[in-house]
Write a structure and sequence with these properties.
two-stranded parallel ribbon, mainly alpha, 76 residues
Length: 76
């Protein structure tokens, strides 16, 4: 396609864009203003102290799990 939405973290989108220079990509950095607030020290703090918790509705989690499993099972 000529234009795609790249749903991944910003540097991964940059890597993909480098491989596909003729494809216009709408990247996550253009979509989510909060991505730049995530830093390595904040991730470390979250892992060490287990303060942050994300809960996902079980119905949404099941649909997301199926999508991820389909992506993992794709063959070239």
């Amino acid at each position: 396609p000529k234009r795609v939405v790249m749903i991944t973290e910003c540097s991964m989108a940059d890597n993909v864009q480098a491989e596909l220079p003729d494809v216009e990509m709408v990247r996550p950095c253009n979509l989510c203003p909060h991505m730049k607030r995530i830093t390595l020290p904040k991730i470390l703090d979250s892992l060490v102290y287990l303060r942050e918790e994300v809960t996902v509705d079980p119905m949404i989690a099941e649909k997301a799990r199926r999508s991820v499993e389909r992506m993992i099972n794709l063959k070239n």
